[in-house]
Here is the input.
Amino acid sequence: MAKPSLPQGTRDFDPDIVRKRGHIFNTIKNVFELYGFEPLETPAMENLDTLMGKYGDEGDKLIFKILNNGLDNPAKQQQAKEDFEKVLEGKNTKGITERALRYDLTIPFARYVAMNHGRLSMPFKRYQIQPVWRADRPQRGRYREFYQCDADVVGSYSLLNEVELANIYASVFEQLGIEVEIKINSRKLLAALAELVGSNSEKQLTDITVAIDKLDKIGLEKVKEELAQRGLNESQVGLIEKYLSINGTNENKLAQIKSLTANNEIAKKGIEELEYILSFHPKLSIDFTLARGLNYYTGAIFEVKAKNVQMGSIGGGGRYDDLTGTFDVPNIPGVGISFGVDRIYDVMEELKLFPTDVQKGAQVLFFNLGEAESRVAFGLMQQLRQKGVRCEIYHEQAKFDKQFKYAEKKNIAFAVIIGSKELEEGNCLVKNLSKNEQSSHTQKALIDLHFTS
Here is the structure.
């Protein structure tokens, strides 16, 4: 018999981890709702044509496709075999797969808006906290199944939305205790760069942004090599290198980009937008190497990195002014951000940032010392629960040592002991297990005790 195992890139979460993750989820959710965002959920799987072509060539390769079901008779099995042979020949895959697990939450949200825009109050502000799946190579901070927490606004071109989303980032990470750098750039500047190197094609813009997006991973020289492989000449690559070499303060960077892009109209618009957002958030950090290699971004883009720890981005997003246009519903602008909960968890665990009160298991264990004793204990336990005290009773009559070890293993702070003597006298013993202190109380007085260690 095979040993039980997990699919690569997925994980189980034990109670301690679930509670810590819940702390992150609740913090993000509370801030989202503070800013007027409303909850939304979409299915785990989408039609394949909803997802394909929205994430660039690299992203499309990471979409988990779902095999068509219904192979319950020989005829269907034969049809599936023939369809699979067509796939191997590079022909249509529809006979094999028509659905896929969602890659992110943004495209499913755009599909939802396209289907429901007539009844939504615009601008529509939604948040979504659900898992997504990517057929990526698993490594630290990168999983095949992971949660995203998104907040998006659709139906508005106002840059105040970008300002508020930057505020949300700052507020959430401040509450979680994570020191971060919030980076900002504009896809308009990347589009201007493509124009300046003499390319107006969407494909070449994608080639440039995808290559730049790899800068942190592969370094400048490898990016230059990739650009050359994608058909750019030495002069074009040199201009992109100048762009990537811009550094200094935000003011210095803006001065350099204005000089490099001269009178390019797209660049002017992108710079104006950055200056507006920075007027509200001077602590944001301009990073012209930030590309966010997804095809649908059109304006300001964000990325968040944690300080004092080696980890990839823990948040990102940006403006997409025509995402629903891919679903034949044009001219609905949008902007959104995402939190990478799994990486945020890893950062908080490494830096020991979780509050001590996150582990909210049972506070009190009632010992089980016999039929009559356990009945009284059960009644008292229910009264404490009504007062919000988290407690449980040991599941069977057992020796003291076994019940103490159970409490210790579960980090339960208090034990309530009712033996035959206490039963007769109407009392109970309360033991503070962390301090090894014991006191006697009437059973009536027990209900008003404060169980804090």
